[in-house]
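Example for tutorial group B:
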């Protein structure tokens, strides 16, 4: 197990589009374990492989209070989404310290593979639906700040670059 380093916005690698996993094998299961360890260490509630510079369609999520309900989504697809939308204040491990409101479909149905390569479908609402859509955006090379105004994006970019300079 290993805690991986997380790419920080505005890193161009966050905009790479992830490829589907061809076979769920031991290497993928190791990636899932390392991503889970990285998410719990942060701590965060969701992490996409893109954020650890692995451009494969793999997501880990744990929205439980007790941090013992890991959910794994390999090759996730949204098969249905509600017409009604909801606004939620989002954050991101790749954009630390930045939180803002994003509007998305309230409920979605997702189809994915689990860590054994078995297909499943899940109806998600509330925080889980927000988190899944946020993480699937990462796999498509999109960071949540891209849902905000251009002005906010440029302020966030400047803030992150400044934080990077002070940290170095
Ligand atoms: C995505 O985000 C998400 O700024 C997961 O300083 C967030 O785990 C989906 C985090 C909200 C739905 C709603 C952010 C940790 C963690 C920070 C996270 C920070 C430390 C974010
Ligand atoms: Co994120």
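The residue assignment follows.
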């Amino acid at each position: 197990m290993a805690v991986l380093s997380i790419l920080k916005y505005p890193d161009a690698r966050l905009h790479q589009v992830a490829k589907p996993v061809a076979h769920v094998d031991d290497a993928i299961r190791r990636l899932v374990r390392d991503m889970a360890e990285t998410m719990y260490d942060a701590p965060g509630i969701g992490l996409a492989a893109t954020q650890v510079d692995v451009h494969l369609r793999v997501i880990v999520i744990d929205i439980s209070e007790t941090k013992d309900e890991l959910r794994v989504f390999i090759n996730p697809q949204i098969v249905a989404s509600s017409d009604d939308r909801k606004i939620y204040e989002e954050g991101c491990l790749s954009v630390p310290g930045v939180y803002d409101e994003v509007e998305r479909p309230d409920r979605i149905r997702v189809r994915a593979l689990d860590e054994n390569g078995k297909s499943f479908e899940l109806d998600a609402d509330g925080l889980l639906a927000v988190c899944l859509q946020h993480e699937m955006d990462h796999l498509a090379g999109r960071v949540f700040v891209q849902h905000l105004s251009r002005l906010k994006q440029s302020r966030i970019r400047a803030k992150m670059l400044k934080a990077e300079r002070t940290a170095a």
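The first strand starts at residue 46 and ends at 48. Compare this with the pattern of hydrophobic and polar residues in the output above.
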